[in-house]
Design a protein that fits this description.
Number of domains: 1
Strand order of the largest sheet: 3-4-5
Radius of gyration: 16 Å
Helix content: 40-55%
Structural class: alpha+beta
Oligomer: single chain
Distance between the termini: 36 Å
Pfam families: DUF945
Shape: elongated
Strand content: 15-25%
Organism: Psychrosphaera algicola
InterPro entries: DUF945
Protein name: DUF945 family protein
Length: 80
């Protein structure tokens, strides 16, 4: 389901990109298929999502308490 959501997000970005105004729907679909795994890999490498290989799903653990934020166990600086 996450992969589908990312693909829809990417497709929306591509459709609204003026540089691709002349692209056919098939070309947009092809670019979407190419970019979706790369986008997910980027989110993984940045620690934004954590893959669960057993279920082929992703998790996000976010908390904020006492002026401190954590995303997947990593501290997130807050402008205080």
């Amino acid at each position: 389901m996450f992969t589908v959501a990312v693909a829809k997000f990417i497709r929306g970005q591509l459709v609204n990109n003026p540089q691709l105004a002349d692209a056919t729907p098939e070309e947009i679909d092809q670019i979407t298929v190419q970019q979706t795994p790369q986008y997910i890999a980027m989110l993984e490498s940045q620690g934004m999502i954590v893959p669960n290989e057993a279920t082929d799903e992703y998790t996000v653990d976010f908390s904020i308490a006492e002026r401190a934020a954590k995303l997947n166990g990593n501290d997130i600086p807050l402008p205080l």
